[in-house]
Amino acid sequence: MTETQTPPGATTGPDRSRRPGTGTTATRVLGILALVAVAWLVAFGLGFSPADRDQEESVRILYVHVPTIWVAYVAFVVTAICSGLYMFTKNHALGFDRAAGASAEIGVLFVALTLVVGALWGRLTWGVFWQWDARLTTTALLFVTYIGYLAVRRLGGSHHQRARRSAVIGMLAVLLIPLVHWSVRLWRSLHQEATVLRTDGQVKMDGLMLFSLFVGVVAFALIYVWLMLHRTRVMALEDALDDHGLEAALAARRAEGEN
């Protein structure tokens, strides 16, 4: 039998190594760092950090509960800033709108995680998963508001119409964050007050507990940045696909008119 040789320049099939995607060397490195930080958080949160005097082992939920809501706050602030940059800059770059939408999606994900983990903590501490407490209620309101923001982004219209209407909501919705943060002082709340960002400047946490909390913040911040880079690129591809489809439809319409 003779072997069949492939002519120079010919390919035997699709080159899977060159398949387009949203990953780059930078995002891969960032993803590895995020995984290392999560593993570090698990080690410190479950192993090295001691139990609390009052909350005992349930204090370990704090290392997820607090960082996720802090990073969600940052995500929603980024949404507001990018919305403002879209509205008040001359070029009205859609890149700002995509960044605002991607950041809001990740923020909603983190608030959902905050609520779920907080419900577990409430079951261990209060005996119930949910109370209509000021902090819980305002956090749920924040979650529902940004769900509405994401729903508005899915309404019909052009990319710029989507960007304008969502930018207004993005700049207004961020005003809920101070309400959530100060709810434990504005109303009588079952939820404990801040342990780290206290008004008197004192931090009432064991050193290893505080370090574990810091590791949690770093881990979820890295996850946020990694998700943000990938999601904005996916949204850019979706917009490009929509534009291409619109251009094809217009070309077909012009051809019909000429005939």
Task: Describe this structure as you would to a colleague.
The protein has 259 residues and is an all-alpha fold. It has one domain (25-241): Four Helix Bundle (Hemerythrin (Met), subunit A), CATH 1.20.120. It is built from 7 helices and no strands. α1 runs antiparallel to α7 (207-258), α3 runs antiparallel to α4 (134-153) and α3 (94-125) packs across α5 (159-173).
Give a brief outline of the structure.
This protein is an all-alpha fold and 259 residues long. The protein contains seven helices and no strands. The protein has one domain (25-241): Four Helix Bundle (Hemerythrin (Met), subunit A).
- Proportion of residues in extended strands: under 5%
Task: For the record, give the distance between the C-alpha atoms at the N and C termini, rounded to a whole number.
Answer: 58 Å
Specify Rg, calculated over alpha carbons: 24 Å
Write down the CATH topology.
Four Helix Bundle (Hemerythrin (Met), subunit A)
State the oligomer. Answer: single chain
Key phrases:
259 residues, mainly alpha, Four Helix Bundle (Hemerythrin (Met), subunit A), 70% helix
Write the layout of secondary structure elements.
Blueprint: H1 25-48, H2 62-88, H3 94-125, H4 134-153, H5 159-173, H6 176-186, H7 207-258
